[in-house]
Design a protein that fits this description.
alpha+beta; five-stranded antiparallel sheet; Aminopeptidase; three-stranded antiparallel sheet; 5 helices
């Protein structure tokens, strides 16, 4: 399911174990820990195991987002089938230095188009913490619609849906 994509400014490359150093830095950012959760990835070795576990799970598709010209990794976009959601979930996370520049929108829009036009998904979901205003704004800009609040593992999450058909 995972393939490479390009946009005007970005390359979206399927995650591989060689991305462990970048993933180590990303999952230990303040934003990731606050809004996604502390994965307890304390070194690159643990990051390699984390990445391999992601790669081994057929319900997880990860793309590392790179600046096209510089080939610098700046974030990730994901499509994941989560047990507690009726549809696949789109997600994204970017290094703070690259937030607010439209990169997340550009990358997520490309993956939404892929999900709709190539995979032929009929719907996609997204969840975020109630106070993650930047993610909520991006989900709405992408065309996802608020569906309500759900509870998962004792945490309230904002639920959004995109209906392709």
């Amino acid at each position: 399911m995972t393939k490479k994509f390009h946009t005007e400014r970005l390359s979206l490359i399927p995650l591989n174990v060689d991305d462990a150093t970048f993933i180590f830095h990303l999952v230990n950012t303040k934003g990731w820990i606050q809004f996604i959760g502390d994965r307890k990835i304390l070194n690159v070795g643990l990051s390699r195991i984390y990445v391999q576990n992601l790669l081994d799970n057929k319900n997880i598709n990860y793309w590392v987002v790179q600046l096209k010209k510089e080939k610098i990794p700046i974030g990730v976009v994901t499509i994941i089938k989560k047990d507690y959601l009726p549809f696949h979930d789109i997600g994204f996370a970017f290094l703070e230095k690259y937030q607010g520049k439209g990169y997340a929108f550009e990358a997520a829009e490309k993956i939404l188009n892929y999900a709709m036009n190539e995979i032929k998904m009929e719907n996609i979901a997204a969840v975020t913490q109630l106070d993650n205003i930047k993610s909520i704004q991006l989900l709405e800009k992408l065309g996802l619609h608020y569906h309500g609040i759900i509870e998962n593992n004792g945490e309230n999450l904002t639920l959004y849906f995109f209906f392709f058909r």
